[in-house]
Fold:
Amino acid sequence: MIFYHGTSLENWKLIQEEGILFGKLFVNDKLISRCTYLATDLNEAKCYGDVILEVEYNPFKRKKMNNYVEGCWQFRVYEPIPIQNVRKI
Structure:
């Protein structure tokens, strides 16, 4: 399935360097957790950054690794998404 992720140019460079799409949440310079938000609608992703990524992801393959619900507008993925499944559009 195709989903979308909005991010900054700076974060897009970090994603490419790491080789995975896997968001980072920092609090006081300490990494607290990792997850990636994916949007089901391209226009929704545009609200979150100037760089829009098209992401191929199967939310049914490992259901425990995401909170996808049919009809949702956005959901979280708790596993790294390989860069091969990500395309800047």
